[in-house]
Amino acid sequence: MNYQETVEYLFNSTPVFEHVGAVAYKEGLANTYELDRHFGFPHKQYKTIHIAGTNGKGSCSHTIAAILQVAGYKVGLYTSPHLVDFRERIRVNGECVSEQYVIDFVAQERGFFEEIHPSFFELTTAMAFKYFAEQHVDVAVIEVGLGGRLDCTNVITPVLSVITNIGLDHTQFLGNTLEKIAAEKAGIIKEHVPVVIGESCAETVGVFQGKAQEKHAEIYFAEDTPAIQRIEIRKDGTKVYHTGEYGTLVGELKGDYQDKNTNTILRTINLLTDFKITMKNVQEGFAHVVELTGIKGRWQMMNKYPFVVCDTGHNVDAWKYLSKQIARQPYECKRIVFGMVDDKDIATVMSMLPIDACYYFTQASTKRAIPVEKVAAIGKKYGLQGKEFRTVERAFYAAYDDSDHNDFIFVGGSSYVVADLLSCHNFPISL
Fold first, then answer.
1. How confident is the model over 333-368, as pLDDT tens digits?
2. Model pTM?
3. Which among 20, 64, 266, 51 is positioned nearest to 144, based on CA atoms?
4. I need a labelling partner for 40 at 20 to 30 A (CA). Which of 89, 178, 340, 405 fits?
5. CB under 8 Å to 63, separation ≥6 — which residues?
6. Domains and CATH numbers, the chain
7. What values do phi and psi take at 273, rounded to 5?
């Protein structure tokens, strides 16, 4: 099989959560342990940092990886989902795993996989751990796929665990209260391994403290020691963070939610005492995280005239920030290309959207996408007026064609909407 055929095999022969949702979710770690034994426990050959949370995992994972990279370490980075290419999930010093490695891995191990029937994520995680070992990384930053306790990444014993925040997302798997979700994510806390909590609330703080005490793990609440003294926002949206310990940080990632992420990241870096990290390393990591790691879809500017931004924010907690950031954009006409998938609280999200924008309702190419007719119907309940488009590409180009030079276009509502946008051919660029 060539690369495209191999990726199609992975998608079509294993349950893929991104494609089919709940039926791909496998509770329990039996397959993961079997895969781990089969490959000789590869994650034990390097240090790991484990990151869970409802929102912010990707931004924190990529930024921490960038900082470690500029500090001179060989860094593995495992994240999900990918936006355009499967290989985005597995990187070493920002470089994606090669197509040939993916081909060879599947070809050599296909017989074993078909005996135990792993999920897509179980298989991908095993590939990542093995690849990092073969690449002799110094450290790997490992992002949890879903939850924590039963996530297949949870076979690792990291040097540090991080839980960014807790919100009501994936409630069909993790529970329908903040306490229940916190308990699942707290499952990554390991015996005698320190843990950083990025954000907590009255419902979750006791859960984290209880699990940390049970595991004899030192717990650090990032909010208790705020690292940021002052924040500036430049005209292009760039965030400038004035800190005590790390000086002035120019954040390449521009979303409002990055303020919380930045505090979490700095508390994490402060605790990575096994690594030699200078103030300059931190500054360079923040300033060049996109170039160093390839992260996409975090208030990402795609075009200047009209001003086009996309963002992967896909749940209520994310939209608490995004809705305010969109609302204050200094453009007379705001155009929003919007769609969501079926396990999200679309009604609450759409209740936050600005009434004065022009909407281009759409549906991503994933099977989990909410049909565009339903998206538009919910929008009308909240006074949102717009047109319907069967594809993200058609919706975007309609918005683009309707726009004047100084208009604002936002594309989002789902990672899959952003993925479809980034896959568009002949994307107009005027940066």
1. 999 999 999 888 999 999 999 999 999 999 999 988
2. 0.92
3. 51
4. 89
5. 253, 261, 265, 285, 286, 289, 293
6. 3-293 (3.40.1190.10), 300-422 (3.90.190.20)
7. -70, -15
